[in-house]
Amino acid sequence: MEVGQMQGRLVDYTKSLFMEGFLDGQFLQLQQLQDESNPDFVVEVVSLFFDDSEKLLNDLTMALDQPNVDFKKVDAHVHQLKGSSSSIGAQRVKNGCIAFRNFCEEQNIEACLRCLQQVKQEYYLVKNKLEALFRLEQQIVAAGGSIPMMEMGF
Amino acid sequence: MVLGKGASSSLSMNKVDGAEEMVDNSNNFTVLVADDDPLIQKLHEMHLKKFGLKVQVVENGKKAVDLCHFGATFNLILIDKEMPVMDGAEATKELQAMGVNSLIVGVTSRDSPYEKQAFMEAGLDYCFEKPLTADKINFLLQELNKNN
What we know:
Chain A is mostly helical. Chain A is built from six helices and no strands. The longest helix of chain A has 34 residues, at 109-142. At the A-B interface, α2, α3 and α4 of A face α1 of B.
């Protein structure tokens, strides 16, 4: 596949992630911050998000598995996950956390467990999508092309 | 319309939510970022540096207070609420008690108006919800220019 086709595929794929609600405008802000002096900024920040999220999801699983669930602790973990997902523009994960926090407040264990499954699902979906995005970018760079800038207003 | 890259001069074009803005990067403002999350530290540092601000990062409120206690001065202190060792509210109270001559701004994930209000009452000048955005930084730059 030639570079032009790969670039077109990347643009279309990125647009689809926004259209399907996986990403929001905050991700565009991350891309705008990346430049020649920090060419891997987006990948680095998203990697930190992956590390944060894996740990938080494990902590949440353990916290909700306790005989006496500490909802304050659960809420603190969800709050943190909401913060980091919001910071990189992982919209569906963020929205899942908002719903999750409401059920923490109600101390509804069953609903919290359902929310945890939902948030895990959304996290793994966006993780796969972002990894696919970065692979497309790497292919373009390896073929000697440049990463096209995202257009606003799609 | 395609987003533009920053120019090499001190003035650069930033696209913010579809509107072009001239950003004056030729300031000497210094910023202290206090946050325990490495992702937020990296994001805020990068965001602020893009606006020409000189940034120092610490991971808790005590380190922020200690820096100022030992003579470091900052035009702006961006402080998270939830931090280990010393949280943002306690650190803000101590910084105010020390009489630091900085704009102190809370940047928190807490979205309930009650929690933001409680944080403000510790002595913040402003409180924003995370994440930091170009609009918020522009606003703070305007405030810093007014004060200086």
